[in-house]
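Worked example

This section walks through a single chain of length 184. The input is the sequence exactly as stored; nothing has been trimmed or padded.
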Amino acid sequence: MIVNRWLDGFDVRLRPVTMDDLDAMMTWVNRPEVTQNFARLSRAISREEEAQWLHRTLESDADRLYAIEDRDGAYIGNAGLHQIYWPARAARLGVVVANQQGRGIGQQTIKLLSAAAFLDHGLHKVWLIHYRTNTRMAHITAKLGFAFEGVLRDEYFHQDGYHDMIRLSLLDHEFTRLRGSWGL
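Given that input, the structure is written out below as tokens.
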């Protein structure tokens, strides 16, 4: 079990999000410097809208949403397995580091979220997409060994323009090979 555990060498842990996390989520959901890479958050989101989204996500069989916490128990952001397609055991990874950016938190979170996907949920594949211009995510995923799957041309319309997205993935046997070097 990866979720709700502190692992040696990690400054963060994942725990299931609850409706009680709504106020913490509202501290970043309308901050453009945090949400600039998320088309869903390209306009101001009301507390009621975010509560509805959170409720739907928590009730969904196709989503697993986690809060990212530091060792002091402070909420840092969210990480999730989304669009889970159980017959293929595949899911999209999503990470929002709202606080304490630039400290390796995103990389640690992707490692933990991948471990939760493969070890806790028995998935076969995780994938993610990011804007072609998101050099931070490109660096992290390359460092972690995610495989390039392709370019989704003009995939997102965001901030008055179309954007190419890069899709990458990790398979369960690749995770098994990498997990020791990840500290898992």
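What to look for: The CA atoms of residues 79 and 113 lie 7 Å apart.
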